[in-house]
Write the structure tokens for this entry.
Amino acid sequence: MKLTEDVINDIRNSANIVDVIGHYIPLVKKGKGYTALCPFHDDHDPSLSISEDKQIYKCFVCGNGGNVFSFVSNFKKISFPEAVKEVADIIGKPIEIDVAPKKVSPYQKYYDLLNAMIAYCRYLLSASKAGEEAMAYLNDRGLDKETIDYFGIGFNPSSNMIYKYLNNHHFSDEDMIKTGICRMLDSGMADVFYNRIVFPIHDRDGNPIAFTARDHTGNSDSKYINSAENLIYTKGDHLYNYHRAREAARKAGYVIVCEGVMDVIAFYRAGRDNVVATLGTACTRRQIELLKELKCRIVLSYDGDNAGQYANLKIGEILLNEGLNVLVVDNRTELDPDEIISQYGKNALRDLEARQISFIDYAIGYYRKRYNLENYNDRKEMTLKVSALIEKLTDEYDRDNYANELYELTKIRKRVNQIDKKVEYNSKVAELGFTVDGLTKAEYTILTQMAVSRKALDLYQRQLGCLLDDNDQKLAMMIIDDYRRNGSCSLSRIYDQTDDEAVRNIITSLAVVETLPSDYDENALSGAIEKVKLEIKRKKLENLKEKISKTSVVDPERSFEYLREYEELVRELGGTNGKKS
């Protein structure tokens, strides 16, 4: 049977998410929904919330969420079509489906080439005379056979043995040059990583894309050389060991981020398989997106030297700006993880990893060591820097406590602009600690009302027509389109039909915010619409302020028009000048 949209809709509409999830794990009735121990991370207090009326589940600890199909797919680690078939079996509507063959990547020939190189390098390390010295070096560093095999570590000897082997197996010179494992010299083709231990680097799906290669003789000026960027490898697009650590990180609820290959291997030897490396002390936009996909806490563990400690600070600030929950391993040893395990053993590294502190605590400690707190200017500078970080925290309680702690340390309070101060209205969801600010709650109310009633949809289109948050607006348009195509709206159906992770996250969040009305409530909807309209006017007011400032000298006439519009808008807002009450 071909898996058509009608078949998928029929099975989804016939399935009850409570029955399906309850088929795999025990559930407990709580309020309007159900809770359970989350199977996607190491959960001890029930953190998985299931909404029966919206047919959506969500864990606010690890972030896993979705509908019946995504739960089965994630739980059983099977494809979407296979999950649809399994749900059909559970609800008594068995189907036979044709599973489409996996698409072949246009880069498959390069992956095959690098896999062949990895296999031969592993053989040369473990079973050849040429690899004996390299193997002895790794054993002296504490790497046993299991660890070496797990990370696919190999050896590239001299005499261009890798090129000769690959050439004999009919791989082209052109492809070897394109992937950066060989180069063309005046004397002919030559290996790039000759006489070095090679560590393969993979993409998120486990395809080999590059190498980092270490000198084990002590005779080279460069301890490491790395693959140059090429058609399948852009360094900043990947995290070392991500394909292996992804599932382990989700189960543990956190991922350890460190600097280099040997640091990842050190943590693995100490029993931690939820570890990735940025392969340097910088973190790119793409690497941040990969970390966000894990939907778990980020634990930074860069080296204990000055460069590593600074990397913890700068990368932590970037991740905090992205709304991630960031902790830092409190490493005061001036050593990197590989040096710690080599000098003091596995228990020492495990003990160090257990010393995780919040990023703000780390930042306060970092600056405290670098500023003279007897000097007013230093105290002021530290206050400004740490306050800027504290303001990025989403929890008002944490912000207040850290602000008080900083004041006790510096005796300087940061001035707050009352006009721009953001007042948050927290809404606690069950006991999961999920909070949303007032505007978000208003937009969530509008979205849930639109999803349950066409009357709400009509009222939204007549009185508002758009939402301020871009992703909320995307979901609003999807809801409208779902009504148009199906005559009704199903958030579970929309979840399956979009690949936009931000929208999917909103859908799963909507399902477990218990303070949102689940039935059509015109008063609640009207109040939410008014709040969004008010916020739109406030933003317009701020925009007019900026325009007045920019045109007051160069175009006084235009500036006066903006001023009149500004004053009229202030009157509409009750003379509050845009201030929130």
Observations:
- The chain has five domains: 5-90, 108-231, 242-365, 371-410, 532-572.
- The mean pLDDT is 88.
- The domain at 108-231 is CATH 3.90.980.10 (DNA primase DNAg catalytic core, N-terminal domain).
- The CA atoms of residues 263 and 338 lie 5 Å apart.
